[in-house]
Structure prediction request, 466 residues.
Amino acid sequence: MSEAASTRVALANSTALLPSLAPLLHEWLPRQRWFAGKGRPVTAFSLVSATEILPVDADSTGIGTGPGLLHLLVRVHQPTMPAQSPDDCYQMLLGVRTTLPPRLVPALIGHVKGGPLAGRAVYEGLHDPRLAELLLERLRTPGRLGTLRFDRGAAPIPAGLTPRVLDTEQSNSSLVYGNAYILKIFRRVFPGTNPDLELPLALSREGCGRVPEPVAWFEAAAPEQLTLGVLQPFLRGAEDGWQLALRALGAGHDFTREARALGRATAEVHTALATALPTPVLRRSQTEHLAAGMLQRLEAAAQAVPSLVPYVPGLRTAFDAVAALGHKGHSWAAQRVHGDLHLGQTLRAADGFWSLIDFEGEPTRPLLERRRPQPPVRDIAGMLRSFDYAARSHRPWNAEWAARCRSAYCDGYAEAAGVDPRSEPELLRAHETDKAVYEVLYEARHRPDWLPVPMAAIHRLAAAVD
Prediction:
């Protein structure tokens, strides 16, 4: 075994590694915007796996002047909360250097005082172009490294693409390589295949061009399979639907043509997913379970946000109506869906072609739930809420703009799918209500100034009693 390989094994297996990093992680981790456990103390860390992608203290010449790249999966222990696991697992890519160059000082996590990395600077490795290039090289050449497995599709990936961190992610991190590819790094990881890999792969097999096809990906078996990152084409020059909508509002322009085209794109994706993956039917028990889950989320949100309490009786009628239909024998088709569809999850190319991105689903929900087949109207409800958000974020509030966009989106969907989502008003209202309740809880916790936006929808939906 070479000296570099020996160092790699020794560091990865060192029981002193995580204890030596723990003081730094206690300070650094809660400040990261992708950390889901904010507001709760971190009581302990446990190491799931450690892999040296680039051995510490060894560069290509064997001289100890180059950086190291350390891949960690760390379980974070916190007091439990409803719908929040006390031991979330996080992915970290740590750069290690004896001396940190000035350009990397903003990425510094801290200096290690003891253990196998004593005296070295540890930093966010994604901000180091040399280490980011190395990560792409691993994706170009599939294979295993420790607990990590790198894989790719049939298309070759060019070498030498300049990396840069994309500073727009919330629950994950992304690197753009030469404006040709984008690598999404999942920070909070769960056992099982992430839908953001699973669904685009399924759509590519069906020839659906509305979703960028995964080019490469990497996973871990630690001890269960975990999806860690996905490389896809970077849609250079494309604009996200949220910014387009805001710009149209600001200029006083109509957005119905874009909304209609976006509805058609959504329908094409749903049709391809229904062809590629199983489509169960929600019968009485499943429908009652669906409605019960919505009611449970409403009651939990009302406990956390007192301003929601007066609306609970009116809102629950939406869920009761769905349960009643299920009790009478009504059934609905279910399938895999996007799960968190809104204007910010769409991109429009210069020629007007719409794409859907970010199939991870709502990251706060368990992966098993996000992978469960659901009525397609869930995605539609999310987009309808997004039009309302866009209109409410503009002053003055333009209710007619939102109504026209919502109608045009449903028209476009019906044209492409052959089914109008408005033909099942009870199910659509229930999903839109469920989404608005989720928004109220989110805004109350994270953006109180935005709370009036979903509360306006709550007022409307609570009054929409048949």
